Structures are given as C-alpha cells and as structure tokens.
Amino acid sequence: MEKIGVGLIGTGYMGKCHALAWNAVQGVFGGKLKPELVMLATANEELAAARAKDFGFAKSTGNWRDMLADPDVHIISITTPNEFHPEMAIAALQAGKHVYCEKPMAPSFAEAKNMLEAARKSGKQTFLGYNYIQNPMMRRIRTLLDAGEIGDVLQVRLEMDEDFMANPADEWSIRSGAASGFGALDDFGVHTMSLLMALNLRMAKVLCQMSKPYETRKDANGNKKPVETYDMATVLIELANGGNGTIQLNRSAWGRKGRIALQVFGSKGSIVYDQERMNELNVYKAEGDPAAQGYTTILAGPAHPPYDRFIPAPGHSLGFNDLKVIEVSEILKSLQGEEASLIDFEEGIVIEGLVQSMAKSHEKACWITV
Amino acid sequence: MEKIGVGLIGTGYMGKCHALAWNAVQGVFGGKLKPELVMLATANEELAAARAKDFGFAKSTGNWRDMLADPDVHIISITTPNEFHPEMAIAALQAGKHVYCEKPMAPSFAEAKNMLEAARKSGKQTFLGYNYIQNPMMRRIRTLLDAGEIGDVLQVRLEMDEDFMANPADEWSIRSGAASGFGALDDFGVHTMSLLMALNLRMAKVLCQMSKPYETRKDANGNKKPVETYDMATVLIELANGGNGTIQLNRSAWGRKGRIALQVFGSKGSIVYDQERMNELNVYKAEGDPAAQGYTTILAGPAHPPYDRFIPAPGHSLGFNDLKVIEVSEILKSLQGEEASLIDFEEGIVIEGLVQSMAKSHEKACWITV
Amino acid sequence: MEKIGVGLIGTGYMGKCHALAWNAVQGVFGGKLKPELVMLATANEELAAARAKDFGFAKSTGNWRDMLADPDVHIISITTPNEFHPEMAIAALQAGKHVYCEKPMAPSFAEAKNMLEAARKSGKQTFLGYNYIQNPMMRRIRTLLDAGEIGDVLQVRLEMDEDFMANPADEWSIRSGAASGFGALDDFGVHTMSLLMALNLRMAKVLCQMSKPYETRKDANGNKKPVETYDMATVLIELANGGNGTIQLNRSAWGRKGRIALQVFGSKGSIVYDQERMNELNVYKAEGDPAAQGYTTILAGPAHPPYDRFIPAPGHSLGFNDLKVIEVSEILKSLQGEEASLIDFEEGIVIEGLVQSMAKSHEKACWITV
Amino acid sequence: MEKIGVGLIGTGYMGKCHALAWNAVQGVFGGKLKPELVMLATANEELAAARAKDFGFAKSTGNWRDMLADPDVHIISITTPNEFHPEMAIAALQAGKHVYCEKPMAPSFAEAKNMLEAARKSGKQTFLGYNYIQNPMMRRIRTLLDAGEIGDVLQVRLEMDEDFMANPADEWSIRSGAASGFGALDDFGVHTMSLLMALNLRMAKVLCQMSKPYETRKDANGNKKPVETYDMATVLIELANGGNGTIQLNRSAWGRKGRIALQVFGSKGSIVYDQERMNELNVYKAEGDPAAQGYTTILAGPAHPPYDRFIPAPGHSLGFNDLKVIEVSEILKSLQGEEASLIDFEEGIVIEGLVQSMAKSHEKACWITV
C-alpha cells in the first residue's frame, strides 16, 4: 500500500468535510493508495492544533505556507473562503503539490486563469470540490442519457435553492459585498453547471437575469448598507445539441434548504431528481401500455455504484458527507492514473467562463454565445 | 328562482365540460339564478341531437347561428377550436347574448381586439374559460398573498407541462400549423398568465424563448412536413412589484400530464403548488422554532370555499371538472350583479397582449416592456 | 332512450352526493337509460321543496312514504342516517322499487338480514353506496391482480383514517352512542371491506381489537358522559388464499382527512395506493435491471376507464363526487341487465357478517373464522 | 485526550459499519475520549490483515480470543452472525472489556439472559447496535412527545419492510432455518421495539401473528426444503399508557428497501416518519386556523442535534452510516460517565423478552401480557 500525504487548509464547513472524507476513504473503498493526514493549517494556531487532533492530522500550523516545504505533503486541500484560493493554489502547485480546491476557483476570472496557468506549468493534478456530481444517482442519470434511454435531450431545467440569505433582517455580511463575486451565480450556482458538465450537457448560448431581493441590509451599527450581490440568478440556456433549458438560482428561497431540482425531458422519456431527496431518482419512459406508464422512483442501492462500498443493503440512504468520500476516492483513482469522474482546473475554467458569460449577458440583457 | 337560458356551441373536450358544469351548478351551489339548457349546436346535426339528449339541452342544431335569434338563449358557451371564437363571439354579442368563451380569445391579436370591441359595444357580459383560477387552493394562495403571510413576493416560478405533443412519431396535426397560433405559448400557456392575474401578480417586462423539439413531423402520407409552432416556450419575467420570475411551458414534456407547478417565494415564506395534486397546497412560513419549520401540506377541505359546496368532509378531493362548475357559479354571480372571480374580455385582452409581447421578445431576443 | 324514475330520501352529505350523481350521469356517460329525478323527500317539507328545485327533482315531500305509491318512481336512493335504512329499504322493496342504499346496511345484523330477505322476496335490484370501489385506479388494481402482475397476493394492509372524532373537546354526539353501532368498524370501516371484496381478496379469519381513545365526552350541559363506541379498530386478517394482512381504522386520527391507504404485497411485486391522492397508483414490479426498479406512480387517465368519460386528457384528476357518478352509471348498467361492478344486499350482508365476526373476535379476544 | 482501545470482531455489513464509525467519530464529534483502533478479528487471517489496513486497525487476527488478553483493547465490537454473540460477549465481559454488540442479543432467550448476567457480574458497560434510535429526527420525535406537543399518545403504528427475502426463487439460506431465530420478528423487527423504547412508548400486551409467504425454498441441489422461519410478523399492541397500536414486519415486501414507517396519533396532533426518507419528519398539530392545518415536513438540519456536528447547512441529508457514528459518540459519552441515549443489555433483554412474548402469543393465538 502506497501512501499519499495530505495537507488541509481550513477547518470550517468544507474543511471538516474534507477532513472526514480523507479520513474515511480508505475504510470505505480500500484501494492501494492510502491517504496519510500530514498537516492541518488554519490561521489560529491553537484551533489548528485542536482540530488536527480531532481530525487525525499528525501536524498542525497557523501558517499554511508551512506545508509547501513539507516533503510529506503531496496534495493540498484548500477549503478557505474563495478569495484565498488563487494565492494558495498557485503556491501549492509551484511547490510541486497536487491541489484539491473547493469551488468556485476564484472571485475573478483573471485569477482563475492564473490558477489554470500555474496548474499547466506544474504538471501536477488539480481537482475541484464539485461534490454533487459524485452522487450515484447522478451517475445513473448519465448512464441513462448515454444509453439513449430517454432519447435525445430536448430540455433541461435546473433549480438550486437555499434560504441562508432569505431573511431580510439578517445583517450585511461578506456575501453581500461585491468582493465575494456576483452572488448566487458563482457562490453556489456553479454546482449546477458542474452537474450539466457531468451529464455531458454542454451549453451553447446563455441569457441571464440577476436580481436583488433586498436592496439594502443593516450593518452591525444598524445603518442601511447597499447590497452589492445578486441573491437570485435565472438563466435561459441553449444546449450545444440543439436543446434548451433554464438554470434558476436562489439563495433567498425560504423553505428550500438544499434543493437542486433537475428535470431532463427527452424524446423518449424524462428524468426528475431533487438533491433534498438525494437517494431517489424518478424516471419516465414512454413505452409499453399507457395504463402502466408513470415516473418510477428508484431508491439508491448497491446497483448504483459506488453506493455498495458504503452499504450492502438498498434504500438505506447515503448522506451529503458520503459524496465527499466518493470525490476523494475519485481523486485517489486519478492520482494512480486511473480514469476518474472529476472536474479539474481545465474543466473548472469552463465553468468560470460560463459564469462570466452569464454575468455579461445580464449586463447586456441579451444572449451570449459561450 | 329566475332562469337564464344557455346555448352551447361544441361537444368536444370543453363542450362536454361546459355542458356538465351548466347542468351541475344549481345542484352544487343552489342560488337564485337557475340555468336552463336551451340549445346545443355542433356542425353535425345528428351528433348535436344525440348530445343534446345526453347533456339535457331542450333543442339542438347543426347551425350555431340558430341560437342567435332564439330569445330563450341568454348566454352562449363557445367551445369550438380557437379559430372560430371571434366570429361566434362577435355574432353572439351583437345578438344581445352574454358570451362565455373558452381560452384563448383568438388566434390573432387583431381578432381578439375585435371581440373586445364588440363586447364593449354590446353592453353584455363576457367570460373566458380560465378554469384553473377557480381551484379553492388557488383562492387560498391569493388570500395568503393579500394578507402578507409570506411577505413581499420576490420571485414566482410557473411551469406548465403536458406530453400530448411529446411523441415525435405522432403525425403533423393542426397544432403544428401556424394557423393555430404560436404553440405552447397561447395554446395552453395563457392559463399560467391567468393564474398570475388571479394572484394579482402583474408582469412588467418579459423575455421569451420559444423552441421546436421536433423540426418536422410526418404527414398522413408519411412525408416530412415542417412544424410551424413552438411546443416549448420559456419566459423570464419582471413583476410590477419589483419581483421576478419565470414561466416555462412545454407540451412535449414526457411524463407530465397536467402539471402546473407554481412556486412563490416571499420575504417571509413561500408557497408551492402542483395542479397534478390539485387538492394540496404547500406553505412555508419563516417563523417560530427553526426545528419545527417546514412546508405544511394542506389538503383541500371545507375551510377552503367553495369546496364545502361539493363535499362537507375535508381531504376527499375535488376534480378537474368541479373547477368548471365553480367557474359557472361565478358567472351566475356576475350575471346577478355580484362580485365574481372571473376573467372577462377586458382582462382577457391583457393576457393576449402578454402573449404578443412574449412572441415579440422571442423574435427580437430581448426584453419587452408590457 | 328509456327513462327510470328516481326517488331520493335525504338531503345531507350523501343526499346531495346522490342528487348530483343522478343528475350528472347521463351527461357523463350517455347511455340508453336516462334517470328522471321524480321526487325528493326529507322530513322538513320546506327544505325538501327548496332542495328539489336545486337538485332538479320534479316533486318533493316531507313524507318519504309518498314515493312508495308513486308509479313514476322506480328506484329509491336512501341516504338517511343508518338507523332508518331498514324500514325505508324494506318498504321500498315491498312497494316494488329498486333500492340504492348508503352503507352500511343497518345498525344491527338482524335488520340487515331482514333487508336482504325483503330484497330476495321482491325480485328487485339492490345497490349499496360503496363508492370507493368505483375509482378507476381501484379497477386498475383489480386488473393487475387478476393478470398476476404482482404474482400471488401474500399480504394486504389497509388503513382508513380520518379525524372527525379526534378532538377530545368535541361534545358527545350520536356517533358516541351504542345505538349508532360499534364505531369506526361499521361507521366507515365497511368501506375497506368493500375494497377487499372488489379486489377479490376474501377473508378467512379475523382478529379484531377495538379501542376508545376518549372514555368520556362532555354533553351539552358540560357533564361527562361515557363514550360507548370505539373510534379505533384494528383487525388482523387471514385471507382465503393463504395470505394475511391488517385493517386499521381510526376516526380519531389527527391529520388524516380521507386516508384509505392500501398496500398489497405479492410474490412478484407490490401495489400502494392512498385515497387522499386518489388519482395516483404506485406499482412495483420485481423484474428487469435492479438499478431501474422502483415504484411507478401512475396518474389516472383515459387509459383507466371510465376516467375517459369525464376528461379526455390524462393527469387532470377526478374528484370524490365523480366516484358516485360512476357508481350510478354502474347501477344503470345493472338495471339494463348488463354486468356491473356493484355491491348489492347479497354482497352487503357478507360485509355486515364480517363486521359481526370482527366485533365478536374483539369481545372474545381471539381469532374468528368468517 | 484520553484513549480507548477498540477491538472489532467481524468485517461484513456491520463490521465495516462499526469500523467506519469508530474511525469517524473523533473527527465528527471531537470530544475528550479518542478511540484507538487496536485489533480486528475475523476467521480468515488474511482477510483480517487486509481489512485491518483498510479500516486503520493496528493489529489483526484470525482468532478473536486474541483480543481478550490484549490490555490495549478496552471495548469489543461484536458484529458476527447472531449465533456467535453469546460466546463472544460473555468472554469479552469476563476478560474485563466493555461490549458493543450488534442486535439482537442472541438466537435464544436463555443465551441473552446469560449475556446479561455476565454483564452484571463484570461491572463493564454494554451497548447494543440499535442505530435507528440515533437519527436526529427520532430524537426530535421524542422531544415532541415529551413536551406534549401532540398530546397523549393514543395510537402508534410501526411498519418495517424490506424485500431481501421476497424472491421465491432465491435459495434456502441460513435465514430460512430455525437456528437463526423466528424470522422477521427477531432478525430485524427488534429495531422497531428499540424505537418504541427510545420514544418511551412501553408495551403492556401483545398479540402476534407470524406467517410464511413461501413454505419451501429450493436448496443448492434444486430440492424443495421447508422454510422454518417467518418472513412476516404482525403484532397488535397495547401500550402501558392505555394507547394501542401495531407493529408490522415483512422481509418479503417487494419494493420496500429500508422502510420503517412510523405513525403516532395523539390527542392534539400526529407524527409521521419513514426511514426511507430518514431526513424528513412530518408533524401535524391540531391548532389554529383549520384552513392552514396540515402535515409540516421538516428537513433535518442543525436545529436537530447532532446533525450540526456533521453539516452546518440544513436539508443536506445525513446517511445511514452517520447513525452509527452517532451511536459510537453516545458510547463514548457513556464510557465517560455522561448520560447517553443507548440500549444496553438491561434494556436489550426487555426487547428480547418482548420477542419471546410475541412468539408465544403467536403460538397461543391470544394476547400476552408483557
């Protein structure tokens, strides 16, 4: 069993998620390449030390640059706020480390391109944390599409909705500042683009409208401060195959907690999925007796790999964190030269480019060819 | 008990639906004004006679103009294909009859305007068959919105999907010809506009994209014939109140049979509805203990009038045809000078105007102010 | 077109439902035998007159016996409280009328047997208002079972739950008195037995437990009064085919409004249905690729007759009242000598016998062979 | 940070699940007591060595007794087939180890009692793998019940259904032999009893009926062999509080994959849950405007601890394996003397006693007081 040394920067939402996944992957998947948790970094040195113990990292540091020089670290997980991605990723690549960076790549397109350039120069592998594509049900959809089970794809609809920005009484935060990006579009909307990519549904043209549900929010002193980002974005799309569709993004959608609703209409059937019920897939096939036709709700099970690596019994439910474990297992496959389902910086820049095109189409209020 | 004489033109899908509703309304609602089924018209005289017996009409005719001169006929139901609406409606109005016409008003905007002009001149009442607005659950939504239960409306999403045009092997029919109109947009999309109107959600700007899933269909001889209408239409909308949204229309959506999915996101909550489960309403309110928050699925019942006129027990389900009975009861209220929830030609022309604006925005590929 | 004269006793929940159905059936189904609404009876003469006008009956009376002598009345609908069924049904049969009586037959088994005896002597036809068996989805289930689509039936589970007796603060009413019967078992539980009968699933043995959620209720004066009926009944069953199952009845089930949940497990698949979503049927077939297996949710449509007589488009939803129209259309078929799906007094007495056996098994706390 | 040495016997379904949980718990929960994975045992020495590397155990053995003498092992996870539980658990306790044993305790009641006796003598702690009680939604239900949110519990219905024994063509296996126990009742039905216990709903009387859907199965040679276990069990229950209910168990239920459907009806509301959608909870409260009443579907989130330890965002879904991590975190709490939600041998024997009473009531076909 070979080992690969892991460095992790960040201990928040995604930091913990990465740590758990790196820790779990060998137990779940076995495999020849075993991750070794070498170093954990976060600005607060004490916190780094405490979390390193919890997460099982051998060393910790308050200075993430410490891991650049550490020969035991072969890959660096970057889970800090987006604005830090470029500096960290480029430094890591220049230090000869593989990079596993949370999405999106960077707040600006220029920085994302710098990251890609660094990746190309380094010869190292890069991976982006588009974990929703790892759901076995999403792979099942890809299998169905590739096999033509619903015929030609005529229309696709994607909705991604959460409500963490829905409360108008919540204070102005970094997410309302232009420095954080456009808003829903890049903050979480990139996930929907990764899904289309994973399903091999490429966009040809886009027309986007972004909106601010609340024009101002109160700052800590109770003064009104203008909101600079768009909590809602809606995109008309034309697909490269002649089909069409929509992407609707809303992080102010009261009641929606983790919704990524997908509808794919084809010439022979259709597919419906919702991330809030991530272990279910609904498939309609226009064949046979009309009296027997309807959507079939398939529960995730061992017939949908790699569900079987987690649980041998069907219908017992994977969870959100399990998707990260699958993502990490794909990374290990990639590092061993095997084919893997992942989005690297080359693919990631395509997503970032889509974001730019969408934002531009919003500004110009017209269709943009991507 | 006063009587109102009813003439009905057409015996197809909507013809039967009107007949059943005119026949049932007095039993369900009681009320002072009792409809009397006077005359049924359809081109085939024998069919007219047979259906008149089944539906309970006293007389029948193969020539609809016969009812214009009949003093016993006070209101005429027009349920023929759209292309006949203008001639019939105008003639009826000129003959001093009230007109109850199926939606949409006419294949062309000019004709619709003629119909409106005739209505204005006549002094008679007009009604359009936008039956989905009559669902007690839809009225409940209006009540919730008016009471501010979900706060300001920030975003509305409407999807109307059926699959009667989904099979590429189906022959070219009148619905694929330009004479029938634009396609999904006016054929059934107007229903979604009536719902927004009924909910008092007015549009300010629209941007529409229409699409043909199948460029050609075989005619009766097996030869390819170009499809001239758009089975799909997707519309970005800006609301007059500053909110935004989408309308998505697809009559080639395999698996969808009678879907009209509505999502309304507000500053204090949200509402979700689907016509395929027309007796259910989902309401989320952002208040109280977060551990207890979620969508509440309300089953239609006597607390949602006029459900109570049909069934005293809750959760026992109204059906599609019952909506038409409610529509007719509203017509009777209007004819007696009471306030009623209906869309007349004045409101109908607004919908037709929206259709025109959407079609124009599709052509110009840009936003149109409505 | 032949005519059949209808007399209706009662103008409440079921009285109105019968009236609407008798009025609608010819319009919906056409057919040779046309019902003529001859006379409406209810104790209050003025109410009878008013409702007769609303419902379209030619005559009205405060004395139901008036219709016995009326030669224009050929069939009598009995929709009064259960305690009046025996006297009315027997008198009607003796007067040479067909009888259409709401379920259950009678408060006591002896009376039900008298009714059956009267029916046998009369040579007239009898029909019981078990309308849930008329749902096209229920017929679809029967078709699937008969065709062996889910193999041998191994287990059936039926739950019927409403909450009209759920509030402990509600006053003692007739439903809490022993004179009304056992409680949930006969009050509405008989519906579940009619469904099993309609699906040809015959019971061989039963073991029933009845329960009182509230031992007392306050009377109009605020004094505690003992509750004599059982709002809950749970029955273990053995089927004649060797299978087994349960029937669970609860009229104090907060949140349930019209639930009749059916699960049928077979050797090759299973079927799941819920009356609260009466236009949906869920079917699982254990065949083909495990990765594609799941419950298929079928929406009621024209492929499920007689849905097509109401609406030509699928997924548009029948309602509860439509089931009564189907029931009446079956009665008309039966009266014309055609095969019909109905429960007459012969079959009804089987259901009443099951109720007796269940009540007895409750008393003896052991299995009873039926 | 103190350490606790873990020994694990078994590498199958539950073996892997325990290993993953022991490995993950510190990362997810932090906490002072850190598990150290000391030794893994399974009969096949090579397999033990390979899995030990995957799962992160320091040592491995083909002889589980090796861990009894190992002073670094403080607690032993037993995940072997039920028949091995007694010998292993008793030996472990006698060797001074804490015991964490998968459910049920033992194939026979006598053996289970021996296990309990050994536990009492040892002074060591014992834990049983009733992981379903660890779902945050289940804890939420307990909170609601304890707070009286749905009033007095009047009726509870539990269904546990899977289809791993549903195929009549599957060969006779150990699960069809009497040595494995009664069948559905103890094989997986004990889970439902653990849930009632966790919800503090104690049974007073039971009446059980067990059934064999298939009387024989073919052995490896194609010869018919009698099935000795019951794949179905249905139990009527009376609760200690005067309420009543049912437990329905079926491991031959085609289409059901991991269903544990719970319905609790109270005097003020009701609760509905299904393990196949383990991140959802449905609560009905009979209060306020009837027009607004319905089941509220709550998505699991940080407001339902310890969901927050896994994911900070609501509606993102825990999975089945996460429940085991929670279980292990409770074990660590217990070992540190804190209050924990677990079922030990003392509580476990109550469940085993219930199984005995149910089996006896099946045999005698009558109610048994428990």
TrEMBL record, chains A, B, C, D:
Residues in the signal sequence: none
Keyword match Nucleotide-binding: no
Domain GFO/IDH/MocA-like oxidoreductase: 138-272
One Pfam family hit: GFO_IDH_MocA
InterPro entries, per database record: Gfo/Idh/MocA-like_OxRdtase_N, Gfo/Idh/MocA_oxidrdct_glycsds, GFO_IDH_MocA-like_dom, NAD(P)-bd_dom_sf
UniProt KW keywords: Oxidoreductase
Gfo/Idh/MocA-like oxidoreductase N-terminal domain location: 4-130
Full protein name: Myo-inositol 2-dehydrogenase
Lineage: Bacteria, Pseudomonadati, Pseudomonadota, Alphaproteobacteria, Hyphomicrobiales
